[in-house]
Every structure is written in C-alpha cells, then in structure tokens.
Amino acid sequence: MKVDGLLLYCRAGFEPELAAELVDRAADAGHPGYARTQRGDGYVSFFCDRPDALDRALPFDRLIFARQKLRIVKDLPGLDPQDRATPLLAALESAYGGQPDVPVFGELWTEHPDSDTGKPLAGLARGFANALRPLLRKSGWLTAQPDPGRPRLHVVLLGGTHLVLATSDPADSAPWPMGIPRLRMHADAPSRSALKLEEALLTLLDDDERAKLLRDNMQAADLGAAPGGWTWVLMRHGMKVTAVDNGPLRQALLDSGRVDHLRADGFSWQPPRTLDWMVCDMVEQPRRVADRMATWLREGWCRQTVFNLKLPMKKRWEETRICLEGFEQAAHRTLEIRARQLYHDREEITVFARPAAR
Question: Where is the active site (predicted)?
C-alpha cells in the first residue's frame, strides 16, 4: 500500500507545536519533511520524500503533542454529499491493487478533528460509519467482528464534502477513536486534576507496567497536593501517600488512613527514605520543576515519577525540548522518559520518568 504521508491529531491551538516537533524529529532521524496545518484545525499533515520511512522516523510513543498517528491513503476533497462511499471504495482498490481476498482491516473508525469546525461533524461521522461498515464488509475490506490484530481503517471528516482516508497500526497509535480516552470524573474526586493523573497512568504505562508499578501499600509522595486530586488517584491504587502542600486537603483523604498531610514546600521537602512514586502538578516555571524532578531521581528519593510542566504561551516545543534535555542532564543518569500532552492537559505536558534499565 502506498502511503502519502501522516495525519496526526492534536489539541486545537497546538498545531504549530506539533508541526515543529514533527519537523525536528524527522530531521533528526535523517528524513526531513514538511508539515501543513492551520491553527485551530486540531490536526497536522506531515510529508517527506520517503513516506515509507515515516513510521520509523516518527514512532507514536515518542511524540509529545500528537494524540493520534494515522497514515494517509488518499485525500478526497470535493465529494458528492449523496455518494461519499463510491470514491472511498475506489481509493481503497487503487491503493491496494483491487479488492482483497482476505479482509485487510479489523475496525472502522469514522472521525473528525477535535476542533470548533470538526465537532459539528460528529453526527455525520456516526451516520456515515453506519452506512459504510456493511459496504466494507460486503466488499471484503473489513472483518465481520472487530479484530485488534489487524490495521484500522480511518475515515476523517474535514467537512461535509471533504474526507481523508487513512489507516493506523494498533501497535503504533492510540487505542481510542480520535486518540481520546473517555474518562469520567468520579464523584468522590477532590478536583478535575485527578483525570490528568488517571490519563497519564493509562497513556504512559502499558498493561504490564500498571500491574507491576501500581500496587497496594506502595509508598508515594504528592508535591503540591492540595486539594488532593492526584493524592486521591494514588490512594485508589492502594498506595500510602504523603501529601505535601501548605494548602488544605479534602477531609475524606485524611479520613482514609492512607494519607499523611505534611504542610511544607514541595520544592524543598525531601523524603526520609526512597519512595516508590513521586507525583507533582505544581504551577511553577517548567525549568524549575524539571530541575527539582531531576534532583529526586539523581538522589534516589523515588523509583519513578509523573509530573507536569506548565508551558509558556510561545515557543512551547522549544521550551519542551529544553526542559526535557535539561531534566535528563541534571539527573546525572540515563533516564527512561515518556511525555505527552494529554487530553485532560491544557497549557502543559505530562511526563513519566524513571532510571533506564541497565
């Protein structure tokens, strides 16, 4: 199959950051390319002379500002609103050299960008999916039941008469439509910030890591804890938490018997022994936060950490690179670092880090 380029979803307003990240990372990998986007679109298209090399040059798990990574099969503008399916099926046959003998795709996701112009297309996307799915199964493109072991087929609606036909590799993409995990705010959570840590643990750790690293009676610290959203998430995973903040915590956390509230400055406090986890969501300059997080790993005060870096309004990709490179340098050791702008983040990115395995 010929791939024209990549289409990547992002938070609306962060298209320039994602575009800059893609250009830099592709160039670093020896495959320079160019991005197309407009601020507010909620997606970026990326192209290079070797589109077959883009998967290796831009692995999804290394990207920070991308929510989803799709391979573009065909851009289809100017469609007849009465018949969008016929040109789509023709594009598939052209890309794959005719109808398949064995179904190629295990799922169909009909989507739209998460943007002001994309959201009104949600109803059309649902209706088109219901009409298209049986056609794809009848013509042999789609399995009768979802098969997560096969590539996904994506139909991205950019307008009523404009769609992009794309595919994704389940091993090199987000496992949720539009790259958005559907998390619900728990009634007992002290704040909506709990969703950020829940999403971070779901997105930045795999199933095996969650089973191994989120266990009963692990010891954790939450720096800048008040009112306790991230402490609450750790406590729900069975951990014992030292919540460090001069501000108040929700009383229910203190009543749980699993939380000790220490009124202290998160930037100066250090634990008396090595902890399993340290998490931090303090509103502070990102370089200062990164430097303090590096101290925790350099001194061996924690085995792994999740923290947020609040980004400036301008040059956010540049600041991200500076912070993450400085973070590892200040740790004085090789780190395993995973970072992502989560769906529940705003002007920030979330980072998971631990010493790299020897």
Answer: 310
Fold for 193-355, please state it.
Rossmann fold (3.40.50)
pLDDT in tens, 223-238: 999 999 999 999 999 9
Task: Exactly one of 2, 69, 310, 314 is catalytic; name it.
Answer: 310
Q: Tell me if 288 sits within 8 A of 200, measured CB to CB.
A: no
Q: Note the pTM of the prediction, 2 decimals.
A: 0.94
Segments making up each domain of the chain, as ranges: 5-179, 193-355
* Catalytic-residue membership of 310: yes
Annotated binding site for S-adenosyl-L-methionine: 193, 226-229, 245, 265, 281
43, 146 in Cβ contact below 8 A?
no
Question: Same CATH topology for 5-179 and 193-355?
Answer: no
List, for residues 134-193, the tens digit of each pLDDT value.
999 999 999 999 999 999 999 999 999 999 999 999 999 999 999 999 899 898 889 999
Annotate 23-62 with DSSP letters as a single string. Answer: HHHHHHTT--EEEE--TTSSEEEEEES-GGGHHHHS-GGG
In the CATH hierarchy, which fold is given to the domain comprising 5-179? Alpha-Beta Plaits (3.30.70)
At 229, list the tokens: 């959203």
